[in-house]
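Exercise: predict the fold of this chain.
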Amino acid sequence: MSIRIGLVGCLLFACLSARGQQFPFELWHEGKIVTEQGDTLKGLVNYNMQTDLLQLQANRKLESFTARKVLYCEIFDATVKRYRQFFSLPFALSGEYKAPVFFELLCEGKITLLTREYVEYRTFTYGYGFGTYTRQVLVQRYFLLKENGSIEEFRGKRNDWLDMMKSKGEDVGKFARQNRLSFEEKYELSQIIDYYNSFFSKK
């Protein structure tokens, strides 16, 4: 009986998770868009990095903007209770041809960290070994903005980040451990990078 209850509970949880799941890019956020012509437009903003498209609701009008038409966008994302900044920057998503695409700015300094988010299907295991289920998850791809303006994807893990930080790596690793910050979680990673950048900020 208890096994049946456990199985039903796992199935119900999976179904509710799939139905109730809503990603930030599916929502409308208070924000502003700065166009390539220098105009600042305010209203409700919806962003989509998979299509590199912004939509703006303002004055009972709905407008769409590609990355070619935008310099900058800022929203207040209530799901994480923070402001998020997006920039349109030239990058070759495939091949060698560069075109404007949207990046979210996480950190700026000695390491300037950008990210793009994607939705992927991933397989999870039910509790008690009752099998697996598949659902969509939001994943991050990280990029480094170099001083010469080039953008490079970074696929490293914790030790790769610390190796990049060279003499400061040990201090940063200690900071992350003491504050229980994960290199795998987007905003926790940004706290770690900000701490590293603080060693090089002007005092």
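Check your answer against the key: The beta strands are 29-35, 40-48, 53-58, 61-66, 70-77, 82-91, 99-107, 113-125, 132-145, 151-154.
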